[in-house]
Every structure is written in C-alpha cells, then in structure tokens.
Design a protein that fits this description.
Shape: globular
Strand content: 15-25%
Number of domains: 2
CATH class of the largest domain: Alpha Beta
Order of helices and strands: HEHEEHHEEEEHEHHEHEEEHHEEEEHH
CATH superfamily of the largest domain: Alkaline Phosphatase, subunit A
Radius of gyration: 23 Å
Number of helices: 12
CATH topology of the largest domain: Alkaline Phosphatase, subunit A
Length: about 475
C-alpha cells in the first residue's frame, strides 16, 4: 500500500509539474497582438475619457481592466499619413507618406515605398501570423502595388483605398490582392451588408482560426468617419431623448442619414458593442490572458469640429485637419490581463510611431531599422515608468488648403508654426485648450522650439513646405 501511495504521489507531482510547465511556457511565449483603430473618433468620445451622452461600456471596461493614456498622439491629423506612421515607425518629418492622395506636389498619390517595412513585416520575422481587416488606404490609385501582402500581411480583407472607405455599403472590397464583390450592396441607396459588420465578423473568424499561433491583427474600423450611417437598431437607444436635431446633407459625396446626432452616437455604440463580443471571444478561445489589445483613433473628429453637442474633444482645441490638440491627441487604451495593472492611467507622451518598436519588444525582436523615430513604451505598459525612455520632442506637419502647418511638442510646450503667420506657443500644463499664445512672453522657450523645428524633418519632393496654391501654379507651368 505504501508503494502504491508513493507512486500515486509521484504521478500527481509529475502531472502537476507538467501542467505548470505548460502554463509557464504559454505565459512566457510571444503574446497575440490586436491593434484596433477607429476612424475620426474624438479624444473624449468614450465614457472613460469624459463622454456623457454616448454609451461605451465595453471600452470603458477595457480601460478599467487595463491602462489608459492621456498624452497619446496620432501620426497625423488625416488618415493616410497617420496610418503610415503607425505601421512604419516614422514621424511626419521622415515618413514616406506625409499627406492624403490629392495633396502631393505632383497631384499623384504617394503610397508606401515598394516593400517598405511595417509592424507586420517585423512580426512575421518573429514568427507571427499577420492580418489587416478593414481600411488599408495605403494603395491609392489604380495600381495593385503596395497592397498589404507587400508589407508583411499574410491576410487582408477590406477597403483598398480611403475613398472607398467613405461608404459603409460599398460593393467591392479586397480579399488579399483580388476584388471581393458584395452582391446586392449599393452605397447610394444604403442597401446590402453594412461593411463594419463584415469586418468584425471576419476578425472573430480570424482570431478563432489562429488562436493556437501567435498572431498580429490590425483591425482598422471605419466608424465613425463620414458618411454617417448606421442600421436603425443602433439608433434606437438614442431616440426620444430630447436631443437637438442635426440635419445632414444626404445628397453629396457622403450618403449620410438624415439626422446626425443619433446616427453618430449609434455608430460608436455599435462599435463598442461589437468589440465587447470580440473581448468575450478571447476568453472563450482561452487566449485572453495571452493577448494584448490596443485601442485608438487615427486622428481627431470631423463631425464635431463646429457643432460640439457631444463635446467629442473635451477641453481640446480643434479637430481633424488641424494640428491643435483636438486634431492629433487621441485615446489609447491597452489591456493585457495579468501583465498590465488594472485601472492604470499614464501621462507618458507617446505617438503612433512608437507602436512598431513596442510591438517588436513584446515579440522579443529588435526593429530592423535603427533610424525610426519611435520609442517602445513597453516599460510604461508594465508599470516600470522609471525605466521608460522619453522623446526629446514629437513632430507633425500638415499641408492641405490650410497648410503648410508644423507642430512640435516638447515636454509641456507646444509650438504651432505656419509658413505665413505668427508662431503660436502654448504651455499644455496650464492651457490644454491652447488659448493663450505665449510666443511674445516666452522668447527663450520659443527659440528652443524654433531651433528644434529647423532639424525636425527631411526633405520630400512630393511634400515640400509650400502652400498648395504655389504647388498648383507650378504644376500648371510645368505643362506649358
């Protein structure tokens, strides 16, 4: 009997040790990485960032279970260059894409360089499966070049160009390099399948398919970018609340629903609902504790730039197509159970170009290029703030009808500089709304910022710091 008891104890110990070994092995392996980006959502459009009218319980819960950043910035104030900075690790002074398609020097779109390295390229090198679902928007024009497969993504389903992504009932997406036709979809009459729903369902299928492999999923949702439209069921919770009506243009490029406020709220809440399903699926598949999820927006809001019924940017000034805080400061929530302290709030100053080195560090590899502008914020994620490296400055530029405009943030100081006009200097610690220009009162600090500005960018033939009017004249003269 004693021999049997000893044998049983030994067997139990071996089983326990084996299970523990597998558990430790799983926890020390590469985490799954999901990066969720919404489109044109304001800094304060979520409850956890101060929103009071739109309900976002699942993202609020994500913040309560993870870390919420208060000083995180988009790559740009419009979508295409912002996404390029996110994927490549370069700021707008060094990125290959620095503007939307129509605002280049030649008038022709500039995409990523052929074969240009991205987060996906780096993670594939680390053994990850990689996918982008939703809005790619970095293969503009008629060419099939610069599709996601050329930049490290194993799988793609979504919009090839950002113009197509303006319509939620668009009839042709792309699956990898080939058109994926949605039979019955008509964006003019808003009939067929709501593309947001397609992307969420595809993301759930992808996660289930790859749950046994380390994977990187870039889920680039288009809510709540104009056009404003959403199935009626998502508007119902916001009907009959006594909200003011906001009439929308329904006949132009954007086929908006007739009333804007209930539609905008319904779009964000639908997204929040669907992400709640995604979070539950991570638990159902048994990979929740081994998956790090990022959530952010590609730039500031457009719908709320003038009519601030939802106060989408809180105290921030401006919105999309501006380099004030409202155009570039965006929410960032990161959740990683057992690794990130629940309910943490970080004031660390970070930007989209930090994601590539952050993902690399999580995956256990060094970035292939040493000249990127990004700095990993993994130490900040894991509560090791004393070990977190900081940026000397952050830089942006923007050159459409309003441009050229440049902006620098260094610590609490912010410079907004126009080619034609007086420099604007703000102290964000005391003036978050950028209302008090201190350029005249703080000449020494202004000189510090202007000196940084001189060396903050490399020249780019397609994105010179000249007004668009001059660029148009040059193009006209070159054709004579």
């Amino acid at each position: 009997m004693l021999k049997i008891s000893l044998l049983s104890i030994c067997m139990s110990f071996l089983i326990f040790a084996g299970c523990k070994s597998k558990e430790v092995s799983k926890m020390s392996a590469k985490p799954n990485i999901i990066f969720i980006m919404t489109d044109d959502m304001g800094y304060a459009d979520l409850g956890c960032y101060g929103q009071t009218k739109i309900k976002t319980p699942n993202l609020d819960k994500m913040a309560a279970e993870g870390i919420r950043f208060t000083n995180h910035y988009a790559g740009s104030t419009v979508c295409m260059p912002s996404r390029a900075s996110l994927l490549t690790g370069y700021d707008q002074g060094h990125a290959s894409v620095r503007g939307n398609p129509l605002w280049t020097e030649s008038g022709q779109p500039v995409n990523l360089k052929p074969g240009e390295l991205t987060v996906a390229s780096e993670l594939k090198r680390a053994g990850y499966k990689t996918a982008v679902i939703g809005k790619w928007g970095l293969s503009e024009g008629n060419s099939k070049l610069n599709m996601p497969a050329e930049h490290g993504f194993d799988y793609f389903l979504g919009y090839k160009t950002h113009g197509d992504a303006h319509h939620y009932y668009w009839d042709t997406l792309y699956r990898n390099n080939e058109p994926y036709v949605l039979e019955g979809n008509d964006f003019k009459t808003k009939k067929g399948k709501y593309t947001h729903d397609i992307f969420v369902n595809e993301a759930l299928h992808y996660i289930e398919k790859e749950k046994d492999n380390p994977f990187y999923l870039y889920l680039a949702l288009t809510i709540p970018h104009l056009e404003l439209t959403v199935p009626q069921e998502s508007k119902e919770p916001y009907m009959n609340l006594g909200w003011p009506k906001r009439k929308m243009n329904t006949k132009g490029h954007y086929k908006n629903d007739e009333e804007g406020n209930t539609t905008y709220a319904g779009m964000i809440s639908r997204m929040d609902r669907d992400l709640g399903v995604l979070f539950e699926k991570l638990k159902e598949f048994g990979i929740d504790d081994h998956t790090i999820v990022f959530f952010t927006s590609d730039n500031g809001p457009e719908f709320e730039k003038k009519d601030r019924f939802f106060n989408s940017n809180g105290a921030l000034r401006g919105g999309k197509r501006e380099l004030y805080e409202g155009g570039i400061r965006v929410p960032l929530i990161v959740r990683y159970p057992s690794k990130i302290k629940p309910g943490a709030v970080s004031e660390h100053i970070s930007a989209f170009w930090d994601f590539l080195p952050t993902a690399c560090q999580l995956a256990g590899v060094e970035p292939s290029r040493k000249d990127i502008n990004g700095i990993s914020f993994v130490p900040e994620l894991f509560g090791q703030s004393t070990e977190q490296k900081k940026h000397h400055y952050l830089y942006w530029e923007f050159n459409e009808r309003q441009g050229p405009i440049q902006a620098i943030r260094k610590d609490d100081w912010k410079l907004v500089y126009r080619l034609e006009g007086e420099p604007e200097l703000y102290n964000l610690a005391t003036d978050l709304g950028e209302t008090n220009n201190l350029a005249q009162k703080e000449p020494a600090q202004l000189n510090v910022m202007l000196n940084i500005l001189k060396n903050a960018r490399t020249e780019h033939s397609q994105f010179p710091l000249t007004t668009r009017e001059l660029a148009i004249k040059r193009r006209a003269n070159s054709k004579k």
